[in-house]
Specification:
The protein has helices spanning 9-18, 157-165, 204-214, 229-236, 256-264, 300-318, 368-373, and strands at residues 25-29, 42-43, 53-54, 58-61, 71-79, 93-97, 109-112, 116-119, 122-125, 135-136, 147-149, 170-174, 178-184, 188-189, 200-201, 218-225, 244-248, 268-272, 277-278, 284-288, 291-296, 328-333, 344-351, 356-359, 376-380, 392-397. The strands form 7 sheets. Strands 7-4-6-5-9-8 form a 6-stranded mixed beta sheet, with no helix packed on it. It contains 7 helices and 26 strands. The radius of gyration is 31 Å and the shape is elongated. Strand 20 and strand 21 form a beta hairpin. By secondary structure, the chain is of the alpha/beta class. The protein has 4 domains: 9-24 and 176-318, Molybdenum Cofactor Biosythetic Enzyme, Chain A; 26-47 and 141-174, Molybdopterin biosynthesis moea protein, domain 2 (Alpha-Beta Complex); 53-136, Molybdopterin biosynthesis moea protein, domain 3 (Molybdopterin biosynthesis moeA protein, domain 3); 328-397, Beta Barrel (Beta-clip), CATH 2.40.340. 39% of the residues are buried.
């Protein structure tokens, strides 16, 4: 294949996400909705509170009756949560009320119990209170028909609680995107298998599968294809029906023709295959017939960094997730860094609780241990000048991968 100029990370990401459309939707019970992405907005089926309720334990009274204190009132009933006082509070009267209890007719304020002294059916109010105090008005939180959760939102625990309070038992969410993973290379064996003298344990596919699951997708492991045409073609057929195919290995300068030429026989059309970044320069993107395809480098750290940069946002695009895949933040640099060349660097670094990123001394792209220890990747743009400790720098967060 003819050589291709390097494209920027931003252009590569724009081409990938721009080529993807959200997957279809399905209904799930609210109990299974956590972590899913809404396919449609959620409208409340209920007004909350459905009527004016007390925000405190105490007494429902008329503000005019307690304008001068101490004020002695007659207790004429109770209004517990889940119950109600059926009468009307008249002059000189009070109703014992509890948090969540409906405010009875005639009452317009709540006196908290700490500011009263009870004696049988009499209560003495010892502190003044204004009208409307400690009352939650009808519809204070939301009303029937209010749109409370927007389409494209990934549901957290608080969102699930809100949907439940809105009396919405079923939610329409995007189905989990199906991502086919195909590792390539004679040198690879699965963890626990017999390892030959020139072989290594395959880690990329398992790391990618875990990331895909964390992002809300479903990984389909197609296995490890040996470095031959027949096996690669055979295993690649398993990607039929998937929402994306990701190959691992076979994308670097010395061996890219294997993936590109062999999968080309199965319908692969390449958009680009070199990105100005480090680690991870050899990155293929295209379509194998109608299936989007990403070819990640086989180097373990390069593969995982490319997955963080491109697979996470790709899954967010497939889910229609609003603002999804953006994990960048600005932090303080903990140690000086040399000027950068023409490729965008992603430097493994620790990240302190107070937001200081300190780059690791060794950045070898085969060292998964340092990637596992890292809290972030410091982003060094092309031709960035030397940086000193205390400078503000952009980082890619690794938590939640």
């Amino acid at each position: 294949m003819a050589d291709q100029p390097l494209i920027t990370v931003e252009e590569a990401l724009a081409r990938i996400t721009g080529a993807l459309t959200p997957v279809g939707a399905e209904f799930v019970n609210i109990a299974q909705a956590h972590g899913r992405v809404l396919a449609e907005a959620v409208t409340s089926n209920r007004t909350q509170p459905p009527f004016a309720v007390s925000a405190m334990d105490g007494y429902a009274v008329r503000a005019g009756d307690v304008a001068a204190i101490p004020a002695r009132l007659t207790v004429v009933g109770q209004a517990p949560a889940g119950g109600a006082f059926g009468g009307t509070v008249g002059p000189g009267q009070a109703v014992r009320i509890f948090t969540g209890g409906p405010v009875p007719k005639g009452a317009d304020t709540i006196v908290i119990q700490e500011n009263t002294t009870a004696d049988g059916d009499q209560v003495t109010v010892t502190q003044p209170v204004t009208a409307g105090r400690h009352i939650r008005a009808e519809g204070l939180d939301f009303r029937t028909g209010d749109v409370m959760l927007a389409a494209g939102r990934r549901l957290g625990a608080r969102d699930v609680a809100l949907a439940a309070a809105m009396n919405v038992p079923w939610l329409q969410v995007r189905r989990r995107p199906r991502i086919a993973l195909l590792a390539t290379g004679d040198e690879l064996v699965r963890p626990g298998e017999s390892i030959g003298p020139h072989q290594i344990v395959s880690s990329n596919a398992l790391g990618l599968a875990a990331m895909i699951a964390a992002c809300g997708g479903e990984a389909i492991d197609l296995g490890i294809a040996a470095d031959n045409r027949e096996e690669l073609l055979s295993l690649a057929q398993g990607a039929r029906g998937a929402d994306m195919l990701i190959t691992l290995g076979g994308a670097s300068v010395g061996d890219h023709d294997l993936v590109q030429s062999v999968l080309g026989e199965a319908g692969l059309k390449v958009d680009f295959w070199k990105v100005a970044m480090r680690p991870g320069k050899p990155l293929i993107f295209g379509h194998m017939n109608a299936t989007p395809m990403l070819g990640l480098p086989g180097n373990p750290v390069s593969s995982m960094v490319c997955a963080l940069l491109f697979v996470r946002p790709a899954i967010a695009a497939l889910l229609g997730e609003a603002g999804g895949g953006n994990y960048t933040r600005m932090v303080t640099l903990g140690a000086g860094m040399a000027p950068n060349d023409n490729r965008q660097d992603y430097v493994r670094a620790s990240l302190s609780a107070d937001g200081v990123a300190t780059p690791f001394t060794v950045q070898d792209s085969a060292m998964l241990s340092s990637l596992a220890k890292a809290g972030c990747l410091i982003i060094r743009p092309p031709h960035a000048p030397a940086a000193k400790a205390g400078d503000t720098v952009p980082v890619l967060l690794l938590d939640g991968d």
